[in-house]
Specification:
This protein has 337 residues and is α/β, with parallel strands linked by helices. It has 2 domains: 161 residues, Rossmann fold, CATH 3.40.50; 123 residues, Orthogonal Bundle (Arc Repressor Mutant, subunit A). Helix content is 49%, strand content 17%. It contains 11 helices and 13 strands. Helix 3 links the parallel strand 4 and strand 5. Helix 7 crosses helix 10 and helix 8 packs across helix 9. The longest helix is centred in the middle third of the chain and has 40 residues. The protein is elongated and about 90 Å long. It starts with 9 loop residues before the first strand and ends in a 7-residue tail after the last strand. The C terminus is likely disordered. Pfam families: HAD_2, MarR.
Length: 337
């Protein structure tokens, strides 16, 4: 697909060989489609096993479905009517008058179908059964799925996904959508983080308090007087990192360090009057941001988002994560201090 991935919205078929075969070239009917074939016995085509089920599922999933016909498609259109598959999400494109040159016919039909469905190439999956199908999809730059064994020209690019039967299509789409949802979630979280981070950076610059120090102060606001090791655990930092952070905050007058009255070996840290003053201003600033979002997002959605983020934060705080660069598992999240 295009480098700028979009959510999958449509599937375009070259149905000959994928969804149906012409009667003179068809094999004996399987039991599972004999009943369907009786409905269209007057036509010259045989519906392939799984074709109807896949089209129904795609329609239920909200996909737009495009069907390309290199010539007359009346028989298959009648079959669609008899099987109750005609819907507002179904688009038929054909070249009955042989308007396009044969070598480029599929390319132009795909472009016409995309325009008719009002979708982009990176939102659409193309499904065919021949080398010409993949060539056309490759030229346009679409994700292409091959059904069957028609791709026998090794001189042309081959699709990454070749399945023997149409039944495999839905599973492929489920997995494709899953990966796209994951990518969208990751990009959305990153974009939201960058946006909010820039807002808090303004506050940070105004008061000379780096983000990591603000995070530490928020932890102390909830529980003042904690051991350094406990704060490190709460923030997901190594002890060596938290020690430097604490020393800088002490120099800035934001916190103080005292010996534990019950155990002199343990030092606990507390917010100073200056620290509490900054916390008050930070709370007011956070409230301003919350009120800003409430002008554009429903309170119920914000509450739902808050619960989801709390769960995600809980996972990040307590579970190891996979570091793709080092290919190792670690439970520590280092931040700039």
């Amino acid at each position: 697909m295009d480098s700028q991935k979009q959510s999958l919205r449509a599937v375009i078929f070259n149905p000959e060989g994928v969804l149906f075969t012409t009667r003179e070239n068809s094999n004996p009917l399987s039991e599972e489609i004999q009943e369907e074939q009786q409905l269209i016995s007057h036509s010259k085509i045989d519906i392939k096993p799984g074709a109807v089920e896949n089209m129904v599922l795609l329609n239920q999933m909200g996909f737009k479905i495009g069907l390309l016909f290199l010539s007359h498609h009346r028989d298959f259109e009648l079959a669609l009517v008899h099987l109750g598959l005609i819907s507002k999400n179904l688009f038929l494109v054909s070249d009955n008058k042989n308007y396009y040159q044969k070598s480029h016919k599929l390319v132009f039909l795909i472009k016409e179908c995309l325009q008719k469905m009002e979708v982009k190439t990176n939102e659409t999956l193309y499904v065919g059964s021949t080398t010409d199908d993949y060539w056309a999809g490759h030229i346009i730059g679409m994700e292409t799925l091959a059904i069957g064994t028609g791709l026998n020209n090794q001189n042309l690019p081959q699709p990454a996904n070749i399945f023997p039967e149409i039944h495999d299509l839905i599973n492929f789409i489920y997995e494709l959508e899953k990966s796209q949802r994951t990518l969208f979630l990751t990009e959305s979280i990153y974009k939201s983080f960058r946006g909010l981070s820039s807002k808090f950076s303004g506050f940070s610059e105004r008061y000379g308090i780096p983000p990591a120090q603000m995070a530490a102060m928020q932890k102390l606001r909830k529980k003042d007087g904690v051991a350094i090791s406990e704060l490190a655990k709460e923030m997901g930092l190594l002890l060596s990192s938290i020690s430097g952070l604490v020393n800088r905050m002490i120099k800035q007058g934001l916190i103080i360090k005292k010996k534990d009255e019950r155990d002199s070996r343990v030092s606990k840290i507390y917010l100073t009057e200056k620290g509490w003053e900054i916390i008050g201003k930070l709370s007011s600033f956070s409230l301003e941001i919350e009120n800003y979002f409430e002008n554009y997002v429903d309170k119920e959605d914000l509450l739902c988002l808050s619960k989801i983020l709390q769960k995600i934060t809980g996972v990040l705080d307590t579970k190891p994560y996979f570091n793709s660069e080092s290919a190792t598992l670690t439970g520590s999240w280092e931040t700039n201090t």
